[in-house]
Amino acid sequence: MTTSNLDDPPRSHSLFAPGHFIDYVLSLPSIKSIWEAHVRHPFVLGLGSGTLPIESFRYYLTQDYIFLEHYARAICVSAAKAPSLPEVFTQAENVLSIRDELKMHISYCAEHFGLSESEMTATKEDPACRKYTDFVRETGEREDWLSMQVALAPCMYGYMVIGEYLTGWEGSVKGKENRYWSWVEQYAGNEAAEAAKKSIELLERHAAHQAPERIEKLVDIFRQAAEVQCCPSTFVVTTDLSPA
């Protein structure tokens, strides 16, 4: 597939204005319902209200640690496919952001749950946790850099959106009254969110140069990625979500 020349003017088509590819994708009926269910999932709302059962969150933490390792590797594959150095550097920043996120994760788990890094590493990976990273890896094997960015987007963008949503949600209990709030705050405006914004901005610049038929293929990649990243069968749903 050909790469985008970002010095050329964006393509003119009726699907979306430059810089609004993600908005366009999330407005499509086939994706909108998946995304809204993801952002307002009982697990997410339980984090915001502080009512999530502690064992559900503990299980999530162990699986998220494994997930982040796979995700970092996927971004490295993406960097190898990057069309130019600016894209390589953005991917490198993302990997460093995940490194910092993992350090934060390890510290948080040790302080709040007595979980060591070796315990999390030894945890058996839930098949639902692996579905998304497998999809990203397989996309990277058969598609180009831009397709991979779209496959990565539901996770990058999703964590940021959920953090922002819970910050403004009227049902959120903030501060020390909510044992999960310090975790929520880590995704509501920190370096990880900034790294996600940079990646989405770069994705948007490339998407604005694509022909309608390529946009259709990218939309389908996002839909498939969202289904495995946000679907109701993910590991956070298999645990008991009744109030603690």
List keywords for this structure.
244 residues, mainly alpha, 12 helices, 0% strand, globular
SSE blueprint:
Layout: H1 21-27, H2 29-39, H3 42-49, H4 54-81, H5 85-113, H6 117-122, H7 127-142, H8 145-168, H9 181-185, H10 191-207, H11 212-230, H12 235-238
Shape category: globular
Distance between the termini: 51 Å
* Tally of DSSP β-strands: 0
The parts where pLDDT drops under 50 for at least 5 residues are: 232-244
**H/E element string?**
HHHHHHHHHHHH
| Mean pLDDT over the residues | 86
Over the alpha carbons, how many angstroms does the gyration radius reach?
A: 18 Å
Number of helical runs?
12
Helix content: over 70%
Largest sheet: none
Coarse structural class: mainly alpha
Approximate strand percentage: under 5%
Structural account:
With 244 residues, the chain is mainly alpha-helical. Helix content is 71%, strand content 0%. It contains twelve helices and no strands. The chain has helices at 21-27, 29-39, 42-49, 54-81, 85-113, 117-122, 127-142, 145-168, 181-185, 191-207, 212-230, 235-238. α4 packs antiparallel against α8, α5 (85-113) runs antiparallel to α10 (191-207) and α8 packs across α10. The N and C termini lie far apart (51 Å). Mean pLDDT is 86; it is low at 232-244.
Please summarize what this structure is.
The chain has 244 residues and is mostly helical.
